[in-house]
Amino acid sequence: MTTAVGADTARKPVTMAQALGRALRDAMAADPSVHVLGEDVGTLGGVFRITDGLAEEFGEDRCTDTPLAEAGILGTAVGMAMYGLRPVVEMQFDAFAYPSFEQLISHVSRMRNRTRGAMPMPITVRVPYGGGIGGVEHHSDSSEIYYMATPGLQVVAPATVADAYGLLRAAIASDDPVIFLEPKRLYWSKADWSADAPEQVPPIGRAVVRRPGSGGRRGATLISYGPSVPVCLEAAEAARAEGWDLEVVDLRSLVPFDDETVCASVRRTGRAVVVHESTGFGGPGGEIAARVTERCFHHLEAPVLRVAGFDIPYPPPMLERHHLPGVDRVLDAVARLQWESEWTEGSAV
Amino acid sequence: MTVLEQPGAYRPTPPPGWQPRADAAPLLPDPEPYRLLGTAAAADISPDLLTRLHRELVRGRRYNTQATALTRQGRLAVYPSSTGQEACQVAAGLVLEDRDWLFPSYRDTLAAVVRGLDPVDALTLLRGDWHSGYDPHAHRVAPLCTPLATQLPHAVGLAHAARLKGDDVVALALVGDGGTSEGDFHEALNFAAVWHAPVVFLVQNNGFAISVPLAKQTAAPSLAHKAVGYGMPGRLVDGNDAAAVHEVLAEAVRRARGGGGPTLVEAVTYRIEAHTNADDATRYRPDSEVEAWRAHDPIALLEEAMRDRHLLDDEGVRAARESAERFAADLRTRMHQDPALDPMALFEHVYADRTSQLREQAAQLRAELDAEAADAGKGE
Ligand SMILES: Cc1ncc(C[n+]2csc(CCOP(=O)(O)OP(=O)(O)O)c2C)c(N)n1
Ligand SMILES: [Mg+2]
């Protein structure tokens, strides 16, 4: 962090939603080729108000209310990118991005490859995603695995206010397409932050140790991203009472995946649990567990475990708390990491 | 008689604020496809244009037969021929300015070649050594697009972007009759009309989507009629009349360039060959139908009109054919050379910078290739 000491006085509580809006504003001010488009992003400022004020400040040509058609929005963004613009598309909700998948998979992700680099796709697709906000059907999906399975896309999910700003700026500046997953239930999370002296966030593709552990005999790594990071931090805090010393890795970017940071942590602790809302079967945790096992096998004291959403369609709001991985479920998994009991330790010789 | 037509029926006043959004009548296409060749108006077409159209049509036909032959010789993986549709291809290739953009589908390599692309580069996708063989910026030709109608929103976005930047650029997007059933067709036309984007959509209605005839594709009076629902003009044109297609497209391009917004053009034509070399058209259409369309051949139509005006004689036809023959011979020679393949290029353009995972995988393939090369060395 490079925040000057003096600038700290300007730091005040800011929500993730505000930081995201500020990132869009600063990106548009810095680069006239940045154009925001989506449903209700203009006059209304988006249903989550992330684009509030952009149409007013930059005009409707820069922040455009489009017709209601996700494939059309992303498809025209492809054409705009072909002509040298840097479109930032807002999908209104996770599950409403699905109509745009053909454009995403067949063109956005492949155009650079198809044209041997002649036609990169500097497109950012912002997707408010995940559950925990009491949304009715189609408003709470964790859709990251669909994006992760498509080469050519970068997939990013911030967990903190500072990352929301820094990663969105990085996403917009990237010459490759970025699926920018905004954890809806963290939109109103607050942190002391200053837009005038934003923390430096490393480039897309770097994870961060959000809570260091000592890596001793009671250590383990919780690997997570987006809305599950606060859950892991809370679990790590609660685990201290049980004598566990948990390190929390915030992936920040699912693609590219930071094997280095993740594996360095797991090699130190010898145990790992992956935590996410997305379904477990075929979910991101399977890939992460496999990568960790392939690379850290001789350091592992236990199988890499996964704490994920159930393999069910996202539940109705009055039942979602049973689905979402919470602190207890994380602690249960930690308890199953094949710890040597006091008795075994004492009688080992 | 409806309830409202009954004498003394209550006549509602329109809901508050209701008014028609536009007059539909000027947007409607003519009932019959527009024709120029063989009409009195053909006398006014510039001789230069006719000569250019003729040269390109003859060369285009030869290009199609040559490319089909290359599939039999194993030099192309597949070729969707535009034989019979050359008038549309040539007009689309000629009608744009240099700075304009063309958005072709898999069947439109000829239009790209007419626009100036090297045919070997245009055929790269169909040869299979890469997904696209040219820098789209070089001739302002987007990569050939295979997922139906998905190129249409790209054309709209590009045209819109150009207008926002203050550039005088028009995009011409090609699509087939089958492609008009896709959602992207609808979304593209709607965006174009709402944004008033300088785009022209050319539907080559060649009668079929592989085996499925137009009657199973749409219940619309014509594909051009679809324009009306979006608030743009629809034009219906004889797709085998090169002069008519050129004129209708030129007018639509002019309109777009002048800020008049998009146009939908339906060119009625026919796919003389099977869908591709791999298709058997006898399974779904009678030869008699094909023969009827052969009698309405775009080259014959043009030659007749030109001979009527003494703009073409046997010598002119011979010269055009000879020139087409030289073009085909050159294409044949170059396509018979094996393309240079570099397996390591597979990792090059996935992202601007290789991820650590791709670096590892590239190293794996490198090792496999080295081992292969070493084995081959031992065998000698
Ligand atoms: C989205 C999509 N679905 C299916 C196909 C397979 N397909 C390739 S060409 C074709 C027929 C297209 O017909 P039309 O749009 O009339 O164009 P034409 O081939 O006649 O030029 C089909 C079904 C495809 N390329 N893309
Ligand atoms: Mg067709």
Automatic annotation (TrEMBL), chain A:
Its EC number is 1.2.4.4. Keywords: Oxidoreductase. Its cofactor is thiamine diphosphate. The keyword Oxidoreductase applies. GO terms for molecular function: branched-chain 2-oxo acid dehydrogenase activity; magnesium ion binding. It comes from the Bacteria. GO terms for biological process: branched-chain amino acid catabolic process; response to nutrient. Residues 14-189 form the Transketolase-like pyrimidine-binding domain. It is an enzyme of class 1 (oxidoreductase). It holds the Pfam family Transket_pyr. This is 3-methyl-2-oxobutanoate dehydrogenase (2-methylpropanoyl-transferring). The lineage of its organism: Bacteria, Bacillati, Actinomycetota, Actinomycetes, Kitasatosporales.
TrEMBL record, chain B:
It holds the Pfam family E1_dh. SUPFAM superfamilies: Thiamin diphosphate-binding fold (THDP-binding). Its cofactor is thiamine diphosphate. GO terms for molecular function: magnesium ion binding; oxidoreductase activity, acting on the aldehyde or oxo group of donors, disulfide as acceptor. The keyword Oxidoreductase applies. Residues 66-327 form the Dehydrogenase E1 component domain. The keyword Membrane does not apply. Keywords: Oxidoreductase, Pyruvate, Thiamine pyrophosphate. GO terms for biological process: branched-chain amino acid catabolic process. Residues 1-25 are annotated as: Disordered. CDD domains: TPP_E1_PDC_ADC_BCADC. This is Pyruvate dehydrogenase E1 component subunit alpha. It comes from Streptomyces violaceusniger.
